[in-house]
Specification:
Number of helices: 7
Strand order of the largest sheet: 1-2-3
Number of strands: 3
Number of domains: 1
Order of helices and strands: HHEEEHHHHH
Helix content: 40-55%
Radius of gyration: 17 Å
CATH class: Alpha Beta
Structural class: alpha+beta
Strand content: 5-15%
CATH topology: Sufe protein. Chain: A
CATH architecture: Alpha-Beta Complex
Distance between the termini: 14 Å
Shape: globular
């Protein structure tokens, strides 16, 4: 598995980290002082975790969705022996979007492709426990991006020559 390499100087990295912290603090403050008390441990863990947030350079499947709210999720999957080994994502979205994308990753890894297709928005909502009802579109966005990655994987399995073509095109035009 090859990972994309980004070169940033130390100041740029510090600025990115500070921007992310400020965004999370603003979201927490805007939702009131009871934010932490009003959410399940699963929700909080998934919302603030960035362990699965990475861009895979040559994924076996790729999906990208942008919601009406403007949040975008890109999903990258790696498959070995018909089992989903890795699900990673990148997003420019809110805490709810991050929580949903992380949840999809957790629910999908170790499953077969067929089992992956059975993961639903309801499964994401149930796992998180306290996703606000007005943020259900975030779960739909995460599932949609994941389904596109599964579909891309299956398309490339039917036409293996396209994977090599796809890689050369992506390198030329730097899609990822």
């Amino acid at each position: 598995m090859k990972l994309a390499v980004f070169t940033l100087d130390e100041a740029a990295i510090r600025n990115l980290i500070q921007e992310q912290k400020n965004k999370m603090e603003n979201q927490t403050m805007n939702q009131g002082g009871d934010f932490l008390k009003n959410h399940s441990a699963h929700y909080l863990e998934m919302a603030y975790s960035n362990d699965r947030r990475e861009r895979i350079e040559e994924p076996d499947g790729y999906g990208k969705r942008t919601g009406e709210c403007g949040d975008t999720i890109e999903t990258f999957i790696m498959v070995r022996n018909h089992e989903i080994k890795t699900v990673s994502f990148d997003t420019d979205g809110c805490l709810n979007t991050n929580a949903c994308a992380n949840t999809v990753s957790i629910l999908a890894e170790g499953k077969t492709i067929e089992q992956g297709w059975k993961i639903t928005t309801k499964d994401v909502i149930d796992y998180l426990g306290t996703l606000p009802s007005e943020k259900i579109h975030c779960a739909e966005l995460a599932i949609g991006s994941f389904y596109l990655a599964l579909s891309d994987f299956q398309r490339l399995q039917r036409n293996p020559w396209k994977k090599k073509y796809k890689r050369s095109w992506e390198k030329k035009y730097k899609r990822y």
